[in-house]
Design goal:
The protein is α+β, with helices and mostly antiparallel strands. Helix content is 28%, strand content 31%. The chain contains five helices and twelve strands. It has helices at residues 28-33, 39-58, 119-122, 125-137, 143-162; strands at residues 11-16, 67-68, 74-75, 80-87, 90-97, 103-110, 171-177, 184-191, 197-198, 201-202, 205-213, 216-223. A five-stranded antiparallel β-sheet has the order 6-12-11-8-7. A three-stranded antiparallel β-sheet has the order 1-5-4, with helices on one face. A two-stranded antiparallel ribbon has the order 2-3. Strand 11 and strand 12 form a beta hairpin. The relative contact order is 0.16.
């Protein structure tokens, strides 16, 4: 799923189900992060790091621990940028050389409605109106959940470039549907606060892609150097 949303320079590894990966060994530094975690959290943590290590190896980088940095963002080996995501029964990691992309963010969520009361806290009025229109015209996707996923991907791409928080209300995301395949498309996030400087230019928006398949919605955002 995630691989189809990203350029060829990005290496992705995904896993459906955590039964096998959940028993793989962690590095001691990683073990310390989940020493008191409940079993579900531990299995997700372990599975997604297994994906990350396999992605490192595909790039020719020795597998190593993936620890948490500021605000819980993963700390990647020097020369790499990447992102991870996990939800019930699915996890994925995406890694790319820093010379190929400035940043990447991925997210996957169950293709079901957001809990009651969540949407007003994560959507702008214009976004909510567009979601209502999509719901009338394309009822096969839970658009509220897709918007939430897109906001998560935008944040994951934003934070490594800025080191700053980005509120849900600080990016206005417009979702477009592929005319041939209505369960995939593109997205554009207009940044409503000053964007990061990348290659000497101020970035005003992030672009990405989305898909809804296999009971999941998934989004990916990439930030090029130029």
């Amino acid at each position: 799923m995630i691989e189809d949303l990203l350029p060829a320079t990005v290496v992705t590894v995904e896993a459906h189900g955590h039964d096998d990966a959940g028993h793989l060994p962690l590095y001691p530094e990683e073990e310390a992060l989940v020493a008191r975690a409940v079993d579900k959290r531990r299995r997700e943590f372990t599975a997604v790091r297994s994906c990350a290590r396999r992605a490192m190896e595909k790039l020719g980088v020795p597998a190593q621990p993936v620890l948490n940095g500021e605000r819980g963002a993963p700390r990647w080996p020097s020369g790499l940028v990447g992102s991870m995501t996990h939800c019930d029964g699915y996890c994925a990691a995406a890694l790319v050389r820093a010379t190929d992309l400035a940043s990447v963010g991925i997210d996957a969520e169950p293709d079901g409605p957001l809990p009651d009361g969540v949407l007003p806290g994560v959507s702008l009025p214009a976004e909510a109106e567009r979601l209502r229109r999509l719901g009338r015209e394309r009822p096969g996707v839970h658009w509220d959940r897709l918007l939430f996923s897109a906001k998560e991907s935008v944040y994951k791409a934003w934070f490594p470039l800025t080191g700053e928080w980005l509120d849900f209300m600080e990016a206005d995301i417009e979702i477009s549907v592929d005319p041939v395949d209505p369960r995939r498309g593109t997205l554009r996030a207009a940044l409503l606060v000053p964007g990061p400087s990348v290659g000497g230019r101020r970035v005003g928006h992030f672009d990405g892609r989305w898909t809804a398949r296999h009971g999941l919605v998934a989004t990916a955002v990439t930030v090029p150097h130029a």
